[in-house]
């Protein structure tokens, strides 16, 4: 073998190595359902929904709120709160070490982010769970942030929207964690008594103490397609009852069919649909301005006479219906195919 034959293969390996490392990290993401590799900027254009199989990929809490809220006027609530290891808890690892690792990985202080902002111009408060932070588990700080967001919504009389993605209560905080179920439920009861709308959006996945409290207490409980929602996981249930669960059990479509959630909304329609629902829940009409409707209507003698006839005539009063009932009736009537009805 000549000296040239020894050099050429080595140079080829170096060139191949340079080619591989020249591709920047973070440009591609693999769909967990169909396993198609997607170009990240293209995936972002589709709201992180796989264009191949329509699977809704998980979003970080900050990315979700940035996508959901209008770009102007966003303000984070209680951003300075951090969890504390009051119990000096330790399992296979110290709790404070788990917190440090989660904070480093997610660049967040805890598993919930709350923001004041607006949706298509209407002010609201929105919160989102960070599933990457210890499985989105709910501890004392998560509960405190949620309650502060609810209290701010109550004080400003604006809606509260929650995007839940959690494995449940945080076991490392024991009773401090379990107490948040009652604490958040009490805050939501105050919103209910005051007539302030609260919409819960269930994303993949929602389990445990979060699903048993704030996630299912919305005036309207909405789910993303194919989201896994329940209390105990399907494997735990199968091991307990020793039976095979139905296909799609605990998926949002299964829950909708059995009346556990009110509706399923595709991510691309989420902002528009929730904006419309919130306007109706607050008794505000939907106003669409176009070229044909920019001029004020003209007042004529005929219109005045018609209005007088209405005033002088008999008025039939209908029994008032709640805003939530009206929204649900309209939504289901528009979504159900002709000839079908939704039992409930």
UniProtKB/TrEMBL annotation:
<dbReference type="GO" id="GO:0005524">
    <property type="term" value="F:ATP binding"/>
</dbReference>
<dbReference type="GO" id="GO:0008270">
    <property type="term" value="F:zinc ion binding"/>
</dbReference>
<keyword id="KW-0275">Fatty acid biosynthesis</keyword>
<keyword id="KW-0862">Zinc</keyword>
<dbReference type="InterPro" id="IPR034733">
    <property type="entry name" value="AcCoA_carboxyl_beta"/>
</dbReference>
<dbReference type="InterPro" id="IPR000438">
    <property type="entry name" value="Acetyl_CoA_COase_Trfase_b_su"/>
</dbReference>
<dbReference type="GO" id="GO:0006633">
    <property type="term" value="P:fatty acid biosynthetic process"/>
</dbReference>
<dbReference type="GO" id="GO:0009329">
    <property type="term" value="C:acetate CoA-transferase complex"/>
</dbReference>
<feature type="binding site">
    <location>
        <position position="53"/>
    </location>
    <ligand>
        <name>Zn(2+)</name>
    </ligand>
</feature>
<feature type="zinc finger region" description="C4-type">
    <location>
        <begin position="31"/>
        <end position="53"/>
    </location>
</feature>
<keyword id="KW-0436">Ligase</keyword>
<feature type="binding site">
    <location>
        <position position="31"/>
    </location>
    <ligand>
        <name>Zn(2+)</name>
    </ligand>
</feature>
<dbReference type="GO" id="GO:0016743">
    <property type="term" value="F:carboxyl- or carbamoyltransferase activity"/>
</dbReference>
<dbReference type="GO" id="GO:0003989">
    <property type="term" value="F:acetyl-CoA carboxylase activity"/>
</dbReference>
<keyword id="KW-0443">Lipid metabolism</keyword>
<dbReference type="InterPro" id="IPR011762">
    <property type="entry name" value="COA_CT_N"/>
</dbReference>
<protein>
    <recommendedName>
        <fullName>Acetyl-coenzyme A carboxylase carboxyl transferase subunit beta</fullName>
        <ecNumber>2.1.3.15</ecNumber>
    </recommendedName>
</protein>
<keyword id="KW-0963">Cytoplasm</keyword>
<feature type="binding site">
    <location>
        <position position="34"/>
    </location>
    <ligand>
        <name>Zn(2+)</name>
    </ligand>
</feature>
<comment type="subunit">
    <text>Acetyl-CoA carboxylase is a heterohexamer composed of biotin carboxyl carrier protein (AccB), biotin carboxylase (AccC) and two subunits each of ACCase subunit alpha (AccA) and ACCase subunit beta (AccD).</text>
</comment>
<keyword id="KW-0547">Nucleotide-binding</keyword>
<keyword id="KW-0863">Zinc-finger</keyword>
<comment type="function">
    <text>Component of the acetyl coenzyme A carboxylase (ACC) complex. Biotin carboxylase (BC) catalyzes the carboxylation of biotin on its carrier protein (BCCP) and then the CO(2) group is transferred by the transcarboxylase to acetyl-CoA to form malonyl-CoA.</text>
</comment>
<dbReference type="Pfam" id="PF01039">
    <property type="entry name" value="Carboxyl_trans"/>
</dbReference>
<keyword id="KW-0067">ATP-binding</keyword>
<comment type="similarity">
    <text>Belongs to the AccD/PCCB family.</text>
</comment>
<feature type="binding site">
    <location>
        <position position="50"/>
    </location>
    <ligand>
        <name>Zn(2+)</name>
    </ligand>
</feature>
<keyword id="KW-0479">Metal-binding</keyword>
<keyword id="KW-0276">Fatty acid metabolism</keyword>
<comment type="pathway">
    <text>Lipid metabolism; malonyl-CoA biosynthesis; malonyl-CoA from acetyl-CoA: step 1/1.</text>
</comment>
<feature type="region of interest" description="Disordered">
    <location>
        <begin position="321"/>
        <end position="344"/>
    </location>
</feature>
<feature type="domain" description="CoA carboxyltransferase N-terminal">
    <location>
        <begin position="27"/>
        <end position="296"/>
    </location>
</feature>
<dbReference type="InterPro" id="IPR029045">
    <property type="entry name" value="ClpP/crotonase-like_dom_sf"/>
</dbReference>
<keyword id="KW-0808">Transferase</keyword>
<dbReference type="GO" id="GO:2001295">
    <property type="term" value="P:malonyl-CoA biosynthetic process"/>
</dbReference>
<keyword id="KW-0444">Lipid biosynthesis</keyword>
């Amino acid at each position: 073998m000549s000296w040239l034959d020894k050099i050429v293969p080595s140079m080829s390996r170096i060139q191949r190595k340079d080619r591989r490392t020249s591709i920047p990290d973070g440009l591609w993401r693999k769909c967990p359902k169909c396993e198609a590799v997607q170009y990240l900027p293209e995936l972002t254009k589709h709201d992180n929904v796989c264009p191949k199989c329509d699977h809704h990929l998980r979003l970080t809490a900050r990315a979700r709120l940035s996508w959901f809220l209008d770009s102007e006027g966003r303000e984070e609530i209680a951003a300075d709160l951090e969890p504390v290891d009051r119990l000096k808890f330790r399992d296979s690892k110290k709790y404070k070490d788990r917190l440090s690792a989660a904070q480093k990985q997610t660049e967040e202080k805890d598993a919930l982010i709350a923001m004041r902002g607006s949706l298509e111009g209407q002010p609201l408060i929105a919160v989102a769970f960070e599933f990457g932070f210890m499985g989105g588990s709910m501890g004392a700080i998560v509960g405190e942030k949620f309650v502060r967001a609810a209290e701010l919504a109550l004080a400003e009389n604006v809606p509260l929207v929650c995007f839940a993605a959690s494995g449940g209560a945080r076991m490392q905080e024991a009773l401090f964690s379990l107490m948040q179920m009652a604490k958040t439920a009490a805050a939501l009861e105050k919103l209910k008594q005051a007539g302030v709308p609260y919409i819960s959006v269930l994303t993949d996945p929602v389990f445990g103490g979060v699903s048993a409290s704030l996630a299912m207490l919305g005036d309207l409980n909405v789910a993303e397609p194919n989201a896994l929602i329940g209390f105990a996981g399907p494997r735990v249930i199968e091991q307990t009852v020793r039976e095979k669960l139905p296909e799609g059990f605990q998926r949002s479509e299964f829950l909708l069919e059995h009346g556990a959630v009110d509706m399923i909304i595709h991510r691309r329609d989420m902002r528009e649909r929730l904006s419309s629902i919130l306007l109706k829940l607050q008794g505000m009409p939907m106003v669409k301005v176009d070229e044909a409707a920019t001029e004020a209507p003209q007042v004529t003698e005929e219109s005045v006479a018609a209005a007088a006839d209405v005033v002088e005539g008999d008025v039939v009063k209908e029994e008032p219906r709640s805003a939530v009932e009206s929204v649900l009736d309209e939504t289901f009537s528009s979504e159900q195919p002709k000839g079908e009805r939704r039992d409930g």
